[in-house]
Amino acid sequence: MTTSPRHGCPPARLALGGLVMAGLLVSTQAPADELDIRFGYLQWQPDRGPALAQLVPEPEDSGLRGAELAIADNLSTGRFLGQGYHLEAITAQDEEALLDSLQAMLDDGVDILILNVPSETLRQAAAISGNRALLFNAGARDVSLRLSDCSPYLLHTAPSHAMLTDALAQWLNFRRWRKVFLITGPTEEDIAWAEAFRRSADKFALDIVSDKAWTFEADMRRNASAELPLFTQGPDYDAVVVADVRNDFGDFVPFNTWLPRPVVGTQGMAPSAWHPAVEAYGARQLQSRFRRQAERHMTSTDYAAWAAVRSVGEAVTRLSSGEMEALREYLLGDEFELAAFKGRSLSYRQWNGQLRQPMPLAHSGSLVAMAPFEGFLHQYTELDTLGYDKPESTCRIGG
After folding, report:
1. Which CATH entry fits the domain spanning 35-159+275-357: 2.60.40.1180, 3.10.129.10, 3.40.630.30, 3.40.50.2300?
2. Does residue 89 sit in helix, strand or coil?
3. What is the pLDDT of residues 145-182, one digit of tens each?
């Protein structure tokens, strides 16, 4: 495992790809009285079914590889400061096994946990954990987890749907492409993404001139050129916005619309937490180190897990302490900043634990822009123009 000079008992039911993944343990030689920081990484994602258009599916180890790289980054400076970092990772075969693994880690004294799980599983995990551990959400984008259903010991390094759609809506407004045609897929995630975009459109003065649900059951690999031009007829629009999180049909929309217009959203040019085309602000170094380690590109989930582990590493270095309560207080405080290759220092929103961060907007081969954009002002930080702001949220986890 490579390092950067800049950073720094599993239960019986474990699985990787349906069966088993042994816990990963990373450490270095260090003094006997070193700070010993233990991380748990827990992953379970339900089978979402086949996606006809998804030529490049999400890697099964997405998230875990980011956490591994962050452990190496933490160790690159931690070994000189008497800090040891350990990662115990479990990918479970179902929700019950995931929650059993969580309980076993808590019983074993692991009190910093990164979770890549669906939103409902995350809620159950937070209820089981209570105040025994600090949890980081690296996967769930559910808005309610940041808006009303918050846990005092749950922080979010994954962006919410609202942060992603606000980034997209800002860009559309910035480009003056304000009349949009919205197409929403049938899944719960599609509907949640589209609902977030409707709010963003209202927030940033966009006009949704047509709002259609995708109802086709035919294989678009054969019918796209015939069906999509008819489906996208309607009032004049500047751009087509697609809400197709699983990628059932979204990749067939570009070049098949009735009007010759750009396609954005979950396909075409898309907002995300991370993208392989991000290279500025030292990001090329991070991308290269990750590719050497994982032999693939870094995903948004990898980045979220990396940011969680690096946040803790930064807090441990500043406090010279591994005590969970002290780390939580520091992470939610005004002094915490994380250098994270996005051009701005990142910090956590004190009211709901969401990591503030710029959002890349990119298509498959190139970065287009990085939100937020000049002109969208905020009294505290422009990063809080992405997602729900403090007055909009009932959460107050930071005291």
Report:
1. 3.40.50.2300
2. strand
3. 999 999 999 999 999 999 999 999 999 999 999 999 99
